[in-house]
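Final report, closing paragraph on structural work. Over the funding period we assembled a curated collection of sequence-structure pairs, and we close with a single example.
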Amino acid sequence: MRLKTLILALVFLPTVTLAESPELISAAKEEGSLTVYSITSRIANAAKSFEEKYGITVSAYNLKDFELIEKVSQEGKNNIYGSDVIIAQDSGRVYGEIIKPGYAHSYVPESMKGIIPEKYQDPLYFSFITKAFIYNSETNVFPPVNNVWELTEKNWAKKFWFKDPLKEGVNANFLTMVTSPEVSARLAESYERHFGKKITLTTPNAGYEWIKALIENQLVMFTSDTKMAASLGERGKDINAVALGTYSKLRAREKKNLALMPIMGMEPFAGFFYPSFLLVRNNAKSPNAAKLFVEYLLTEEGFSPWSGSLGTYSSNPNIKAYPGDNSLDIWSRILVFESPQYIFEHRGDVEEFWNSLIY
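Its predicted structure, as stored:
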């Protein structure tokens, strides 16, 4: 009976899709090369490893996010071939200026369809970066605040630091998301918990109200997350401030002797995280090599140039976070995430609102 049961179990095992189809590899090798536009310099190491593994030449170009979007958009409008694969950032613009017009599309390898969460497949998310509320752990043994509305109170005037959203699209995207129905509702609830009364609106919703209150409380803006982290984490200076910046900067705690800690229990969110997208150009000259490269980047080997430090995570949950870091699943429960469509449709309004208060 046991043998019969075992045989039946083996017969009815689900079909396992090979991670690398021999047919795809053969077709990709026939094409022989591909071109990639990326917003990260780490693409060079991934390209080199891919070349060594498959013998397919990769021309990799590292561009700033706005440069990449404008380049792909212009090439798309004029049906000019420029690249086969793109790794793009700034979700609202990617959605509105590249995906929606049909200049690039998502290719999800069969081997990944049952692994990558469905919510990260269309468009295909490649990686995520986290930004968190951070404080000086020498000045304060415990987090000095635990509710985002505390940062709008007089005793926190000039003590909340943030990178200028007009100098970095992802920060503008975050501010746009706090005005969304879901996040603004959470902000209204946290306002009532903190102040013991319902919020009185002078703007469209609690998200706009929070932005307005931060600016009126003399928000301090930096031009760089690196400079902001270095200034916040200085020892012996009694720095009592909170910054919302790139979580990966905490890796400098040992190298630069910085006193930095995140506020994981901040209400109603501990920061935000944002994606990069992995897309295939619609007019790719090497579509098979592009598909193989996409599949490769979604594996542990292909993602290795990105996984060697805090703060960067793959859409493939089988690729573990850097030792000592939180998993993407944990971060996703406490951080604000982006809706590309909402950002595309509403960022202009938020930027106009921001400018009306700043200038």
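The longest helix spans residues 340-358. Residues 21 and 344 are 37 Å apart (CA to CA). We thank the funder for supporting this effort.
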